[in-house]
Design brief:
A: Rossmann fold; Rossmann fold; 4 domains; 5-stranded parallel beta sheet; 20 helices; B: Pyruvate-ferredoxin Oxidoreductase, domain 3; 6 strands
């Protein structure tokens, strides 16, 4: 049966067909839908882990225990999981283990565009790179086979364009692998206890292993030469989504498609290079294949023609090729080049009714330095809130605030972090604030869900990925257990109470934590209370204070205040959720409150 | 041989752009094309611009449509239509929904929202095949503003037929089959009416 699947859906399908039994991951764009989809198949176990490192350890444990297992993450998630990834490469496995890294060339929703093929080389493990959904499924299945055959984790490297592109896939049935049988957990410390004495013996094994995989790469069916139309003047080596652009822009050229981008099939590449006059590599981001081929002593060009930054697309590949003289000027596709005039920017914004808005409005007003983190609340940086001054990676904010405080930064630092990010890597940083004592004020913005990636459950939500009830961690108790003495949990829409507490806490000389709590406005429990408010035109004088909270539901009306000639505010009843933040800050009581709920 | 068609869909988070492109790629498959679709998730879900690329063809490699190569623009919002205009090839088909969604940069940032006469003037420079669809009006008459995306799909189906870019075998029913699979049961009738109303509007526009 043929079905249209996204790359992520296809990876999930491949894992299921391959008989994968256990999966653990932390959500991260563009990888999230893999586990969400895998979780819908029967006879599997899948879970959201608090972070990628835990996710990889869980998958490793399952693979040691003899079940095919995998972990998925966005590219920067592999930084978090790197320690586990590296020891797993040393120990090998009992049953197949696949690590899926979804890279984000072009940084559609990421802080960098690191090329994680380098991690495969670093760890001496194979790297497979699908170029469409069919290959995403097929290579996921192949990855489990390679993993068992060579006793190694395998890296399946996706990119945004493969993850979130849809193409036709031939579906197969689940095949229970022989390795999946119930087994006694191995007692094999020489292989699984990486003390120096054992690790020293494993390292040569690992080095030999990658040489063995390289030998297999010569006949790996997803490494293939597509002969082209007879013109041998130019040959292209490519992998992943770049293969599609290569075929599109150079339809007649011979192409060496590498489904395995590490280790490289040296003999195959040599033969291909010898069959063409000029060899080029088309690949996104790093000159990974290019440098590998150059190290073989084969003349090759790549990044001298195609950009090292950003995403490729058919236009970028074509323009670069014309620039380098690989295609004639006549190949150029003209742009309409019309002047569309000035267009208003449309940045992502905190949604109407977002429980993070009150805190950012107040922090902006207090003019304190804010060390932020990764999540919906990263949008606190955007105007008119302008209330975030650093944001590097998951869990960084609290540590950065502590470091600034220890450096004698003359102001009180506030670290803001979401519930899910706090569980991910915030807890240890807060523990450090307590242990080494700095007066950092940490605001944990608990919207009861992992928001930015599209509502995944986490240890605070009381539900698991498979929809089972789970204990919901009590953040206030956890924070107190870490040793924080000043802790308050406040409903996120209570502006006055949050303001009072923040003003009190920035005067303390000890660590403090404010937990602002309210379900995300887009959750069913958030939606349940949607009720639009209204501006009372007779009371509004167009002071514009309510515009400073950056709510998309508050608009400038066409009516001007008769005295001051300023536009009055008006609330869009179609989008307002009735959070009452604006009503609370209006100095003229010109915005209605919700009718009393008792 | 079937004509290769490169579609660009542009809208604002929440307008159903992704659903429309999901329908479109599956209609392509049902009509016997090789079909691919590419979209970007992530921060665009929070009220930002959303674009999606769909391709139909005998053989399709890149799921992405390069700038200047789009044969069809399906724009769900006026400012997003203008933002995408240079993605079109000369003579492309553009369907523009006359919906304005003002971003915060307009509502509280003081940037101007483009006037409709500019929309007409700019598109006239690129192609004679522009169809302005009163999606908000049609959807309001149907009683649900969420179906503007399906109204636009209906208009698209009619225009593809009118230009002869698709054959008689691609009937409205084939489109409806794919739409019905993707909407909740209680909205099926509404979406069918929205598609047929859009189809009627698209047929009437030359």
């Amino acid at each position: 049966m043929i079905k249209m699947l996204s790359g992520n859906e296809a990876v999930a399908r491949g894992a299921w067909e391959a008989g994968a039994a256990v999966a653990s991951a932390y959500p991260g764009t563009p990888s999230t839908e893999i586990l969400e989809n895998f979780g819908r198949y029967p006879n599997i176990y899948a879970e959201w882990a608090p972070n990628e490192k835990v996710g990889v350890d869980v998958a490793v444990g399952a693979a040691y225990a003899g079940k095919r297992a995998f972990s998925t993450m966005k590219h920067v998630g592999l930084n978090v999981a790197a320690d586990s990834f590296m020891y797993a490469a040393m120990t090998g496995v009992e049953a197949g283990l696949v690590i899926v890294s979804a890279d984000d060339p072009g940084m559609h929703s990421s802080q960098n565009e690191q090329d994680n093929r380098n991690f495969a080389k670093l760890a001496r493990i194979p790297c497979l790179e699908p170029s469409d959904s069919q290959e995403a499924k097929d290579l996921m299945i192949a990855a489990f086979g390679l993993s068992e055959r060579f006793d190694t984790p395998v890296l399946l490297r996706m990119t945004t364009r493969v993850c979130h592109s849809t193409s036709a896939v031939e579906l197969g049935e689940r095949v229970e692998p022989s390795a999946n049988g119930p087994k006694k957990f191995p007692r094999n410390p020489a292989k699984y206890v990486m003390m120096p004495g054992n690790a020293m013996k494993r390292h040569p094994v690992v080095e030999q292993r990658i040489r063995d995989v390289a030998a297999l790469a010569e006949t790996f069916p997803f490494n293939r030469v597509e002969p082209g139309a007879g013109d041998r003047s130019l040959g292209i080596v490519t992998s992943g989504i770049s293969y599609q652009y290569a075929r599109e822009i150079f339809p007649a050229a011979p192409v060496l498609h590498l489904g395995m981008s590490w280790p490289l099939p040296e003999k195959m590449i040599r033969e291909f290079a010898a069959s063409v006059d000029r060899l080029i590599v088309i690949e996104e981001l790093d000159p990974f294949l290019e440098e590998g081929i150059r190290l073989m002593g084969i003349p090759v060009e790549g990044k001298s023609i195609f950009p090292i930054t950003g995403e490729l697309d058919p236009r970028v590949v074509r323009e670069s090729a014309i620039q380098a003289g690989l295609l004639p000027e006549t190949a150029r596709v003209p742009l309409a080049g019309v002047d569309a005039g000035p267009l208003p920017a449309r940045p992502p914004v905190l949604c109407p009714g977002c429980p993070h808005r009150s805190t950012f409005y107040l922090l902006s007003k207090m003019k304190v330095p804010v060390n932020g983190d990764i999540g919906c609340y990263s949008l606190g940086v955007i105007q008119p809130l302008n209330a975030m001054h650093t944001c590097g990676c998951m869990g960084a904010g609290i540590g950065v605030a502590h470091g600034a405080a220890k450096a004698g930064s003359p102001e009180r630092h506030v670290a803001v972090i979401g519930d899910s990010t706090f569980f991910h890597t915030g807890i240890q940083a807060l523990l450090n604030v307590v242990y080494n004592q700095s007066p950092v004020v940490t605001v944990i913005m608990d919207n009861r869900i992992t928001g930015m990636t599209g509502h995944q459950d986490n240890p605070g939500t009381g539900r698991t990925l498979l929809g089972k009830e789970a204990p919901a961690v009590n953040i206030e108790e956890l924070v107190r257990a870490l040793g924080v003495k000043h802790v308050r949990t406040i409903p996120a829409f209570n502006v006055a109470e949050i303001e009072k507490t923040l003003k009190e806490y920035v005067k303390l000389n000890e660590p403090s934590v404010v937990i602002t709590q309210e379900p995300c406005a887009l959750l069913p429990e958030g939606k349940k209370r949607w009720l639009p408010l209204e501006v009372i035109p007779d009371k509004c004088n167009g002071c514009a204070l309510c515009f400073r909270i950056g709510c998309p539901s508050i608009l400038k009306s066409d009516v001007l205040d008769p005295k001051l000639q300023r536009p009055l505010a008006v609330i869009d009843a179609g989008t307002c959720t009735g959070c009452e933040i604006c009503a609370q800050i209006c100095p003229r009581d010109a915005i209605t409150f919700r009718p009393s709920e008792n | 041989m079937k004509k290769d068609i490169k579609f660009l869909l542009a809208g604002v988070g929440g307008q159903g752009t992704i659903l429309a492109s999901d329908v479109l790629v599956n209609v392509g498959l049902a009509a016997g094309y090789q079909a691919k679709q590419a979209e970007v998730h992530g921060m665009s879900q929070r009220g930002g611009s959303v674009t999606s690329h769909v391709r139909w063809g005998e053989t399709v490699y890149s799921p992405l449509v390069g700038a200047g190569e789009a044969d069809v623009l399906l724009a769900f919002e006026k400012a997003e239509a203008l933002r995408s205009v240079n993605q079109l090839r000369a003579g492309a088909l553009a369907l523009v929904n006359l919906e304005a969604i003002e971003p915060v940069t307009v509502t509280s940032g003081g940037q101007p929202y483009p006037q409709e006469d500019r929309l007409h003037a700019v598109f006239a420079q690129v192609t004679p095949h522009v169809v302005y669809v009163d999606g908000p009006g049609v959807a309001a008459a149907l009683g649900n503003s969420k179906v503007e995306n399906v109204v636009l799909l209906g208009a698209l189906a009619a225009q593809l037929e009118r230009l002869g870019w698709t054959g008689a075998e691609l009937t409205p029913q084939k489109w409806l089959d794919e739409i019905v699979k993707r909407v909740p049961a209680k909205y099926i009738e509404l979406n069918k009416r929205a598609f047929m109303e859009g189809y009627r509007v698209g047929r009437g526009s030359v």
